[in-house]
Design brief:
Oligomer: single chain
Strand content: under 5%
Distance between the termini: 72 Å
Structural class: mainly alpha
Largest sheet: 2 strands, antiparallel
Shape: elongated
Order of helices and strands: HHEEHHH
Helix content: over 70%
Number of domains: 1
Number of helices: 5
Radius of gyration: 31 Å
């Protein structure tokens, strides 16, 4: 690039007829190379911004999951309920809904944060439900295999972790 710019600014060549052409073509080449480099820098910046956004989203989700699981372990299952309703479903569902609402209304930045936190809180509840279902299945001797007799499989609410 420095070579093309120096030739363009000097404009000196061996013949006078080629001086203007070589100088202007070198200047055009330099401008094109500068434009390509600027476009490349824009693409790299956009990719870096998108990558950092993904890292922040994942970090927020994992932090909310850890905090909710810690609080659940510390307080016990009854400490997380308001009446018969698990507060993790209320908080996680509310944050996820609010985040989606903001994202669809053009406030994607704050919407993504609320959605990540809501997903983390809901993930803690979903993990506990799956763990409970697996523990119940293991205790009852469920092998996980079904017959191919055409009958529908029935999963009890207790096995699914809905009722305890």
């Amino acid at each position: 690039m420095a070579n093309a710019l120096s030739v363009a600014t000097r404009g000196k060549t061996t013949t006078r007829k080629r001086t203007a052409n070589k100088g202007s073509s070198s200047l055009v080449k330099a401008q094109q190379q500068i434009a390509r480099l600027q476009n490349r820098v824009k693409k790299v910046n956009a990719s870096a911004k998108e990558g950092m956004s993904s890292v922040i989203h994942a970090g927020e989700t994992q932090t909310a999951l850890f905090a909710t699981a810690y609080y659940s372990g510390r307080r016990g299952d009854d400490g997380l309920k308001m009446g018969n309703i698990d507060t993790r479903l209320l908080v996680g569902g509310g944050l996820a809904t609010w985040g989606l609402w903001q994202a669809f209304n053009g406030e994607a930045l704050s919407g993504n944060h609320a959605l990540a936190l809501g997903n983390g809180v809901l993930a803690a509840k979903v993990y506990e439900m799956g763990h409970s279902a697996g523990s119940t299945a293991a205790a009852e001797g469920f092998s996980g295999q079904t017959r191919l007799s055409g009958r529908r499989a029935h999963v009890s609410p207790r096995m699914a972790g809905i009722y305890r």
